[in-house]
Structure formats: C-alpha cells, structure tokens
Amino acid sequence: MKYVDEFRDPSKAEALLWQIEKLSNLLGKSVKIMEVCGGHTHSIFKYGIEEVLPRAIELIHGPGCPVCVMPKGRLDDAIAIAQNPNVIFATFGDAMRVPGSKTSLLQAKAQGADIRMVYSPLDSLKIAKENPNKEVVFFALGFETTAPSTAFTILQAAAENINNFSMFCNHVLVIPALKALLDNPDLQLDGFVGPGHVSMVIGTDPYEFISQHYHKPIVISGFEPLDILQSIWMLLKQLVENRCEVENQYNRLVEKGGNQIALSAMNKVFAVRENFDWRGLGDIPYSGLKIRPEYGQFDAELKFTIPNLKVADHKACQCGEILKGVLKPWQCKVFGTACTPETPIGACMVSSEGACAAYYKYGRFSQVVKDREAKRERVRV
Amino acid sequence: MCLGIPGQIIEITDINNKLAIVNVAGVKRQVNIACIVDEQHPPESCVGDWVLVHVGFAMNRINEKEAAETLQLLQEIAEVMVTG
Ligand code: SF4
User: Fold this and answer.
1) The predicted structure's pLDDT at residue A184
2) What strands lie across the sheet with A31-37, from one edge to the other?
3) How does DSSP assign B27-61, residue by residue?
4) Contact, A113 vs A90, CB < 8 A?
5) Residues A47, A17: contact at Cβ < 8 Å?
C-alpha cells in the first residue's frame, strides 16, 4: 500500500457518487456542506469534485487556509521585522505573495530585505546556526497541523542554546474559528467536512460541541478524492438518518485523542492568545497561539519593535463573506479583473487553497465572466 | 498549507536529534520524527513505519489496518453498484 493511488481509484469514486446521488434524492432538498480546510478546497478543485456532485449539494469553501486568514496588519509586522538590516527572515513559500497594507514579502525581498523561503522550520534554525552574526526570524503560521513542528523547533533551539533565533508566531486554531462561524446568523450550513491533518494532531473529541451544541454533523476527512467523496457520503447518510455526530473517515491517520506527543510539545511552548484578528472574520477570542514567557527569548514580538497596527481590508474585497460561505468568489466585483493571482487584492486569491484562487485557476473563471456578461446583457435589455 | 505526503521510514540517521530518512514517492528525504517517538515507540522501532510528512516532520503514523478497512468498505460499495 502507498496510501495515495488506492484512494484515487475511479471505479470506486463512481460507486460513491452513485450512492451520494441516491442519498441526495432520498433527502429531497439541497444541502450546504462546508469543507473547513483549504487543503480540501484544493483537492476538490483539482479533481473536479464539485462538478460531479448532484446539483443539490453545494460545497462552501471555509476559512481553513492559514495564509488567507492572516490579517494585513500582521503581514506589515512581518515585513517590518524582515526589513531590519541585521535580520534574515525565513518563511514558507505560501506567505510570500500575501499583500500587506503596502507591500508583500516578495516585494520587500526585491527591495533588498533578506527573505528566504524554507520548506521546514528546522531549515530556519539551520540558517541561524550558519549565520551567528545575524538574527534569524521564522514566520510561524498555520493551524494545529503545523504548530507542533514549530514547537519542536523552538524546543531544539532552546536545547542547543541558539540565541540568534526567534519566531514571529501567528499560529491559529481551528476550533474557535468553527465556533465563530457557527455563531454567525448569516451562515446556513447542513454539515462539515472536517480538517484531516489538524485532527491527526488534536483528535476528534474537540469537535463534539458541533454535534452536541449546534446539532450539525461533521465528518473528519482525508485529502484524496475517495476520502472526500466518502466523507460527503457519510454526511448525507447522517442527514438522511437524522443523526448529527462526529464521524471519522480518516481513521488511518486520525485517532480520537489525537497525537499526544505533538500536543504536549505545543502546550509546552505555546499559550493561547486572548484574541486574534482573522482576515475577513475579525477578532476571534482564544483563536491564536503565542510563545510562552519561558521561551520568550525566541519570541520575535519581544525581540523586535513591530508596528502592531490593525489595518482594514481593501474596500472592494469580499474575502470575509467568501470565507463564511455567504458569497461565491465570482460575486466579488473585482474577481478576475482587478484581483487575480498575479495581482491579488485579497488573500483568498493568493494561496492555491483560497477559494478565489481555486476558482480562478481551475477554469471556473471563464464561465463566471461569461455568466456575468450574460447577466449584464439582460440588465441592459 | 496543511497538506502532507505519505512516506515510509527507511533508516534512522540520528537517534539523539530524532532524524530519519523517509522514502516519499521514491524520493529520499530527511525528516524529524519527534512527533512519533515515545517510550513505546523508540526511534529504532520506527523503521518500516508509514508516516505522514509535513514541513520536514513525520507528524503521525499511518495505520495500515484502518486504511485496509476503509478500502474494503469502498470495495464493497463498488461491488454493490456492479451487482445492482
Ligand atoms: S476576488 Fe479578490 S478581492 Fe474579491 S473576495 Fe476574492 S480575494 Fe477578495
């Protein structure tokens, strides 16, 4: 078993679609399902899953792209740190093109800042060891999937006593964001496809409130096409049978209690922030992580002066509504015109996991423009 | 950002720093295995394990039995369709 191809078998996909169709007919009404994770959004577009589903099933692409939800002000802070002449700023490639209020990291790099793309936080630690006269700062971002790796990197820096290394911590948490979404009256959802890799760290227990308190079903899902189809099938089954439970499709990787080793490293290094600002969604209580005072020497927010200003999103940008699933990307006036992946206005257009970029990249764009033109024609007539 | 790739641990290269070599779709990569080792799973015992690789770390073990069960279920659904 290679754990990839087996989960892409077209004949099994066809069978699942057939089952989905049957359940959808039984249900007899349209349903809205949110896939929370940007990785799922990416797979759904890549494999054209939306197209093959019955029309009664609408997928809403949720806020689970950590790059997309990074507020402008935090990006400005990152850029301010990176522009320090003595700093080497290391980041995942995903964050390079996200627009801050004036520039992006990519533009700052072009203007001379020493910004380096790394694959792993450990690479940034290596850069710190190789450049003892420089301050190396890693741009720590991502959900619970990524946070253990940065926690272990800080623990290693502490063990090796590396004092020219720190992190600008922007980790965010999925559960408080889901709660904020569920509390939003605009949002009408019938169920969730839950994030698989976040859950391999946190387990399935933290989602119980969704079924118990909000009475919505959720299925934790893997990322291959069969995983996603099976999860949609499981969700529909719950809806048909009038159940709302936390179910786990991805049990080859996700255990009920999560990964205790990873969780305890996170706990050791990080504390929960009282508030964290999400692009498009605003302040969400207890939704971000910060570095604990015990590891303060690795906290870039303590080491450097940062502007720490809140910056409003671009007026035209509807990212917030898109992330909440209230609007579709093409309903944003600047989609595909002023806002493209080359010149993103909002963050949803930057990462390939953002809903706007996914629609643009996978060809819905042309359809959308055609539809919009047709509508304008009608209005003119 | 949360994407990960399955790979198989083929060698432990540094027990103290918990580093291993993983075969990811035919490409050998160094990964940190701190997230998957504890008293019950010392580093030496990890060779041969399938793991999910994300940002240079083996984030979790892949459970072969569970994977087989999922595939078995999907197979049964496919057979129901064929036999009608
Ligand atoms: S198209 Fe661009 S501006 Fe409009 S919502 Fe998407 S990212 Fe924001």
Assistant:
1) 86
2) A57-64, A31-37, A191-195, A218-221, A246-248
3) EEEEEE-GGG-SSSS-GGGGTT-EEEEETTEEEEE
4) no
5) no
Tens of pLDDT along A79-138? 999 999 999 999 999 899 888 888 999 999 999 999 999 999 999 999 999 999 999 999
The verdict on a CB contact (< 8 Å) between A253 and B37 is no
Domains with residue ranges and CATH for chain A? 72-172+288-303 (3.40.50.11740), 319-372 (no CATH)
Please tell me the predicted confidence (pLDDT) of residue B66: 94
Per the confidence metrics, is the pTM higher than 0.90?
Answer: yes
Residue nearest to atom 6 of ligand 1 (CA): A356
Within a 13 Å sphere around the CA of A156, how many CA atoms are in the beta-carbon half?
A: 22
| CA distances for A291 relative to A87, A89, A268, A336, angstroms | 20, 18, 9, 39
Give residue A327's pLDDT band: very low, low, confident or very high (50, 70, 90): confident
- Picking from A234, A253, A264 by the largest number of B CB atoms within 10 A of its own CB, the best residue to mutate is A253
Distance from CA of B44 to the nearest CA of A (A): 17
CB contact under 8 A, A149 and B56: yes
| Chain A with chain B: Cβ pairs closer than 8 A | 137
A41/chain B closest Cα distance in angstroms: 11
What values do phi and psi take at A183, rounded to 5?
A: -80, -5
Instruction: Quote the minimal CA–CA distance from A269 to chain B in Å.
Output: 14
Q: How many CB atoms lie within 10 A of CB A316?
A: 13
Q: How far is the CA of A323 from the centre of ligand 1 (A)?
A: 10
**Torsion angle defined by CA atoms of residues A303, A304, A309 and A312, in that order, rounded to the nearest 10 degrees:** -100
Comparing CA positions, the residue from A9, A39, A60 lying closest to residue A230 is A9
In chain B, helix, strand, coil percent, each to 5?
Answer: 30, 40, 30
Q: Looking at the DSSP assignment, which residues form a beta bridge with residue A60?
A: A34
Residue type, A308: N
The backbone torsions φ and ψ at residue A147, rounded to the nearest 5 degrees and listed phi first, read -55, -40
Residue type, A367: Q
Indicate the top mutation candidate among A327, A348, A352 to test ligand 1's pocket, ranked by most ligand atoms within 8 A of CB. A348
Strands in chain A per DSSP E? 31-37, 57-64, 87-91, 115-117, 135-142, 165-171, 191-195, 218-221, 246-248, 270-272, 275-278, 282-285, 289-291
B3-51 confidence digits (pLDDT tens)? 899 999 999 999 999 999 999 989 999 999 999 999 999 999 999 999 9
Residue A229: which H helix or E strand, with range?
Answer: helix A225-240
